[in-house]
Amino acid sequence: MSGQALARVEGVHGEGVHEDPGGFDLLAPDGTRYRVDVTDGVLDPHNPLLAGYVEGRRVVAFVGPTVDRLYGDRLRAYLNARLEPGSWSVHTIDSGERSKTLESAERVCAIAKETGLDRHGVMLAVGGGIVADVVGFAASMYSRGIRYIKVNTTLVGQVDVGVGVKTGVNALNTKNMFGAYHPAHASLNDPALLATLPAREIRCGLAEIVKMAVILDADLFRALEEHPDAFQRSTDGAFETYVVRTSMRLMMEELCPNLREHDLARLVDFGHTFSPVIETAGGHRLEHGEAVAVDMALSAHLARLLGLLDEESCERVVNLLRRIGLPVFDPDTCTPELMTQALRASWQRRGRKLHLVVPTGIGKADFVEQLEDVPADVLRGALDALAQAGGTR
Ligand SMILES: NC(=O)c1ccc[n+]([C@@H]2O[C@H](COP(=O)([O-])OP(=O)(O)OC[C@H]3O[C@@H](n4cnc5c(N)ncnc54)[C@H](O)[C@@H]3O)[C@@H](O)[C@H]2O)c1
Ligand SMILES: [Zn+2]
Questions:
Q1: Which residues line ligand 1 (CB under 6 A)?
Q2: Whose CA is nearest to atom 9 of ligand 1?
Q3: Whole-model pTM above 0.90?
Q4: What top-level branch of life does the organism fall under (predicted)?
């Protein structure tokens, strides 16, 4: 645990992020507080953590089909062992970005209603970001807001979705068009669940981790350069635990003073300016983390061309993404027209300021604030540089 980091974020009233061996406590300046647990054997009936959070409450659990296949039996066995008979049920909902819809959230509410869930009850999302976002959003509207718990089963889920308070669904052709800030009653993370993740999903999680490293932590970046195959090799997991916990802590420290995004200039939006369009205009061919990787590479080249980032650092960012196996260019969507549209959409979303996050070194970043600060020829130049450097990977 880093005392230095705590000192940096801890405010006068104990606000900030406090790390302990079992996870993190966050207390935001607006009084919001929540805990993010890191635990072993979350679905082992001997592990009291999850049961402790739901004690005495009706539980309606939701899983996607894959997680149901891999962990459904264990989940049911856990709930069966730890909770009152008849007080819980498990339901499968569609997963996949195309199923992250208002209809899905409504279906979650309908299932909850059928089981008689009242305001005292709790929704349980066991899965990746999609299930967490849909169930979290459903929980935020059900009876004007009930408790929900996330058990995060993907790397993105653990380092990103699981540490924040955002929920939402896609609509009107726009990512996360409808949503709510709705902190979870508990967020449980068991690194062992990541062992079954497909390589592509690991890479997507690594994209979000690279994001944190580029903007805030040169040591983490160097560590990833040494092991771009993290989470995909057989080791004792110590390195992976360092990577996950560091990324979680950095993310929580960044989110803490600005949980509900009153300040629309957010460093953690690095990689999230062009990526929504890369995702939607590409028909979700690229996954979220892959689109974020392309966006980070593009933003790094923009920074280089704007004279904000040296050439070597730009190369290190793009090379690390490549070595992880992430795409750094997507010819179908990375056109000057679509990327200009993406800039405009971000400008609009961020209160008519661009707030484009660009690296200014490894572990450092800054904002490009105005649309005019990214001239068309610079955007074109950055896209050309990426296209020439060799296709998608
Ligand atoms: N709310 C937030 O703050 C926030 C932050 C980041 C991303 N998101 C959203 O999260 C979504 C992406 O989440 P994701 O990357 O977790 O994707 P996901 O939920 O689609 O999961 C990826 C795939 O992995 C499978 N899976 C899940 N756990 C598994 C396991 N342990 N073993 C094997 N397979 C497993 C799933 O079935 C799915 O096919 C996007 O919609 C993104 O917008 C939200
Ligand atoms: Zn993201």
A1: 64, 66-67, 70, 95, 97, 100, 127-131, 133, 153-154, 156-157, 160-161, 164, 166-167, 176, 193, 196-197, 201, 204, 288
A2: 129
A3: yes
A4: Bacteria
